[in-house]
Task: structure prediction
Amino acid sequence: MAGLSCRDHSNQNNIDDNIDRKWWKEAVVYQIYPRSYMDSNGDGIGDLKGIISKLDYIKSLGVNVVWLNPIYSSPNDDNGYDVSDYRNIMQDFGTMADFDELLKGLHQRGIKLVMDLVVNHSSDEHEWFKQSRSSRTNPYRDYYHWWNADRGKPNPRYSLFDVNHDAWMYDAKTNAYYLHYFSRKQPDLNWENPKLRKEVFDIMKFWADKGIDGFRLDAFQFAAKDTTFPAFPPGYEKEFSKYYAMGPHLHDYLEEMNREVLSKYDVMSVAEGAGNSFKDAHDLVDSDRHELNMAYAFEGVDIAKPEGYSVLHFKQVFSKWDSVFAEKGWLSIFLANHDQARMVSRFGNDNPQFRDISSKMLTTFIMTMRGTPYYYNGDELGMTNAGFTDIKDYRDVSVLNEYKHQQNIGADMQAFMKRTEFSARDNGRTPFQWNASANAGFTTGTPWINVNPNYKTINEEAEDKDPNSVLNYFRKIVKLRHDNRALVYGKYTLLDKNNPDTYAYTRELNGKKLLVTLNFRDHPAKVNTRLDIGKAKVLIGNYASPSTNGMLRPYEAVVYKVN
Ligand code: NOJ
Ligand code: CA
Result:
């Protein structure tokens, strides 16, 4: 874990390497969805004590940053993305003492902690909103976006999670509408109000003073809005990001956040969403602008569709994003998170014959690209989509409300359920599969969401014992990344660009060159790299005897040292 031995390289450009080293560039981030990780008290809900009981496991992975989804007080309309008190821990998850113990336990193991910061909106049960909705003259009125009904109905705004997709909710108490881009219980905060901004910065300082190591800014590109709420053209709602992201003053807010908080601590920052263009993305993360460190671009993760996807498209998207950040700025690399269905079910092949090998291949991709890898819990086991077919099995507010919406508009419900089976977020939120005992060892009670029945074969205990498991492959490749700075900083070059089946690229730094070859298909495929693979040294491969001639078996992945 060489990268983490110095806390900050900000003023220590390594002259030998001529690279701008940073701990957050060298990190491998492991994302934990606390609700589904480990339940310590049998109430069926994962909690902080549960995570604490698994710290040695987390350490064994070799990851050095953990990103925790929100753990603040919340009525859980959207599983914690509706915060009712930013300085307290959700009762289901435990206490502040548990949090302190968790942070200490991570730090003792050399692992940093990044917290989710959900400040595009709060819960409607937050004290600010209770005050705000109580009267038009309440001092908290301007913490949110209100439109007095005396002015008529405001121009339409689209809500992602609302039953009617109407982002304006009428509130009789003050005869006004409030804005909510997500559910009705997630009113949008008004970032134009300096008092609100100060509150948020104070909250950030509260957590940074506790010693956390970073923030993931939830939905932050939507925080800045044109508060005259002009009309959008018909069909605008199909291009949500275009009309909602990167509103006026967003950069002012981020500069202020950087000045007031981020620059004062050794913390990393990552935004969900990277705007609508490469320029937007650069404006968020270029170090000379002093805003954020990284952003997630969704173009890559959005490629997989129920009908499949084109490998050429996949390569083109990831190569394009890499090239745009080759000289400046920094990216994050991911294929899944808690808002996506499972990586292997979307991008690989979850058929038992190929699940294991294709999981390893996708993991090889993530760990060998430039950019900080964000790896979602459970993917290290090759966990698959649950594929629930009954609406009663779903828990996600977005699915439940969309189901009602589709019913209301008389849609083909079978087709809706089919789409949902492939893409629902709940696919990635089923309990972590620890062992073959009841409920996968996640809980002694009734889990808040059903366990994937395949836990009897896919589970941590079994994979830990098997040297060839997805889990042990993950551990090896994380180590490989930590041991090879070229995999973090090295120049990326795409090879055999027009090959429709395989993905091959080199990563080069200071004369050291690594070659990555990946077969994305369930049949053999030849990759033509024009490099002498026969003479290269295999660093890792997902088959027992890795290919040495460019002929790759189904989903084969090999990383070589070329020179
Ligand atoms: C993005 C989060 O990742 C997602 O889970 C949540 O539903 C929305 N933002 C709203 O906070
Ligand atoms: Ca619990």
User: Anything to note?
Assistant: The chain has three domains: 6-120+194-478, 127-179, 491-561.
